[in-house]
Design a protein that fits this description.
This protein has 23 helices and 11 strands. It has about 675 residues and is an alpha+beta fold. Strands 1, 2, 3, 5, 6 and 9 form a 6-stranded mixed β-sheet that branches.
Length: about 675
Amino acid sequence: MAVNPDIQKERQSATFDTEKLTEVVYGGKKMVRRRRYLQNIIFEDKYLNSFPPWWNRTRVQQYDTAIKKNVYLNKLMQDLNITEFTEQAFISEAGSGHEGNPLGVHRTMFIPTIEKLGTREQVAKYVEPAKQYKIIGTYAQTEMGHGTFIRGLETTATYDAKTEEFVINSPTVSSIKYWPAALGNTCNHVVLMAQLYSKGKCHGIQAFILQIRSLKDNRLLPGVSAGDIGNKLGFNAQDNGYLKFDNVRIPRESLLSRYAKVERDGTYTAPETPRLAYGTMVFVRALIVGQCAKSLAQACVITTRYSAVRRQTEIRPGGEEPQVIDYQTQQEKIFPLLAAAYAFIFSGNMMLKEYIRINADMEKGILDEMAALHGLAAGLKAFSAEVTSNGIDKLRRACGGHGYSHASGIPKIWTYITPACTYEGENTVMYLQCARYLVKQYAQAARGQKLVGFMSYLNNPVKQRSALNDALKMSDLIEAYEHTAARLIKVAASRLQALVKGGMPIEEARNKCGVPLVTAAKAHTQAYVVKLFSGVVNRPDFDHSVARVLEALCKLFAVYGINERLGEFIQDGFLDGQQADMILNKTLSLLAEIRPNAVALVDAFDYSDKILQSCIGRYDGKVYEALYEYAKTSPLNKEEVHDTYTTTLKPLMEGKLKFDSPAARL
């Protein structure tokens, strides 16, 4: 393969073995080989290669292609006996990355919710047919008027003891289910979240399973109205939909009854721990951290490679135009986000491991760590989504005009991941949920209770000044993060406590403290990621050269985060102006240190051109040739002379254009 000489030079300048870092990213040689093997099957598949490029598909074509691709991929995974979640993700990434999957929620939310909340009989009845796609489901929670505030949902399920049925209704326009994926046309069953009424009393939100479309012809069942909600900023291969009920009757057995139960006479038995119902959402939030990591990593690959190939504006008149990546301002746009991508990869891996471990305990009735898991998942989901959404748009702008084009591949990635700031919990609400957990932990620490795990930093003695010096040791940086997080949690908790003591209701007090609570949650979550990243870097089994370059990324992630929020670190005098100067100087020196390894660092993510689908992020650096070929595929180029010329432009130029309109007759 002929390779652009600039990008070839970049790879030759690397100080570490790219393959060894790839093994760190994916968990060892065996997993790297397995990933490449599975993805090469997809890359070489004739059927998957028969579809037109995604950038020229209409909305209907996007949906049709997504259904066909993902049905084919599911069948392929069955034939290959691919049952492990990570391996399935490798295949989906290669076959339909960032294109949306109308069957995705069926697998990640519909089935897991039934498994978690259903009785053995319900699991036997629905899960196996769902896994075989004999039924297709979605998770219908969000309504037109309510999303993250689950307790405010308005859809009703009223129990009729005479017939032993629930009557499902959408009593207001704002109660119409709105946004759930696959509602538009794909699904025939839903897990429905609704207010349960029995014996004249509301028992809160419960999960039901019911059929909404015929299994014979996919027509809506009586009393059900549903459809697609129309074009969106992204995810247009996904048929996000609306769902309205008018006195739809379902049997008593439709209530997912592993924990909550309704007897024949309407007697309601509440679950011992209501939060068990939210286990699926915690799982999905854990997945989102990993999805953010992948999306940010891919955008970094594209922007870094393009910046190495693109030359712009001679520094000295008449001199050679330097590579854009040689400008410190460009490095400042890219390298901290590259560090964040690695940080989120490690955080996402940890989050899934923690979910699996704690969920196994929850299944045994051990609920000790459930609150901690919920708080961590909420904070990490919000932080990773916020950094990723803002970061990818920054990377797009760093590519100049070409970043605006679908040819770059970045708009596709950004519009796919930026909804993560809203779905499965709007970010601000997620930060506030995290903050509620932090306030409780702070209260325990204030009473002298010893906290465990990462929260133990709230037990640390309060120091007046940081020991940070020119060495900028990671231990000192972590201490600065934990000190600042602890102070901000104390500020928010103390303010909240003072308002409540003054007679303000707790709900109103939380609103009056919303901004400091969110600030505290962000500080806590970022401190967690910094410490986790540092722990990964210090693993003794890493190759020395790999560990060194990861250490530079980790330190950049830490010092850049302090620079961005410098006021929080110096407000109480823990860091002073001289130390702030040290941190800025270290940030700039780290940009220079990372610069020779930039291309190798993004190569280590191991994303094929067929996944990136980017003209400017190609492995071979043939950017301009690819852009020219891309331009020629535009549908407007199919005809040399478009009909519009004959009907409108030519008459305009000849002065013969006439419009028979009311305005023309005035």
